[in-house]
Amino acid sequence: MKKIFSIAILLTILLPGAALAQKSKKKNKGKDKPALVLESKLDSLSYAIGVNLANSLSADGIDSVNARAVIAGFKNSLAGVDTLLTLEAVQANYGKWIAEARNEATQRFFDENGTKDGVVTTPSGMQYQVIKMGTGAKPTLDSKVKTHYHGMLLDGTVFDSSVDRGQPISFPLRGVIKGWQEGLQLMPIGSKFRFWIPQELAYGPRGMGKIKPFSTLIFEVELFEIE
């Protein structure tokens, strides 16, 4: 519930920023100037809050919103007129709608990524691409494996990398996330694969360190040996 109210508070400063943008567009129409100029601390704060709100939604896995509907909801609520959705309806449905929008955004990513050359989608929804195919044995779920890996978020942020540390890592396959369990069993020794792992095969709603909840993960994994 706190998130609903925090977003409502953020929106109270978005409208002046939006009005400023419209005014600036008219003023600069036909001139080679930016549409918005941050002329005061309030302007900068307003813009920063907009950026933070967008980043907050992005962290929730939301890649697009209807900005006109956002502003309309804010204006109606602030003016005290009847809103198209009651506060009770928003509070009851907000979490569900966020989850649905997140799932749709994730599905769009995997649908598009799955059309790229060499990308294979497994029945679980995980995707992989062969960078180098080895010729050795494949591990089983009961194997202990030695690997190098490089883990990234969709925005390119590296959250963990044995490659950067310069030290391969060994672990029992049963002790890692489901996406790794599935992916490593596809790899003969000597292989290097790229994995795209949906959140339900990774850390899901828990997150982990730099990995925010519901994050899709990208790994480049090289399998050295089965110990």
List the helices and strands and how they pair.
Blueprint: H1 2-27, H2 41-59, H3 67-79, H4 87-113, E1 119-121, E2 127-132, E3 144-153, E4 158-161, H5 162-165, E5 169-172, H6 178-184, E6 192-197, E7 217-226
What would you note in describing this structure?
The chain is of the alpha+beta class and 227 residues long. It has 2 domains: 110 residues, no CATH class; 110 residues, Chitinase A, domain 3 (Roll). The chain has 6 helices and 7 strands. Strands 1, 2, 3, 4, 5, 6 and 7 form a 7-stranded antiparallel sheet that branches. A hairpin with a 4-residue loop joins β3 and β4. The N and C termini lie far apart (49 Å).
What characterizes the major β-sheet? 7 strands, antiparallel
Radius of gyration: 23 Å
Helix content: 40-55%
Structural class: alpha+beta
Mean pLDDT over all positions: 83
- Any low-confidence stretches, pLDDT <50, length ≥5? 1-30
Distance between the termini: 49 Å
Give me the count of strands. Answer: 7
- Domain count: the total is 2
How do the SSEs run, as a string of H and E? HHHHEEEEHEHEE
Structure, briefly:
The protein is 42% helix and 19% strand. The protein has 6 helices and 7 strands; from the N terminus they run ααααββββαβαββ. α1 packs across α2 and α1 crosses α3.
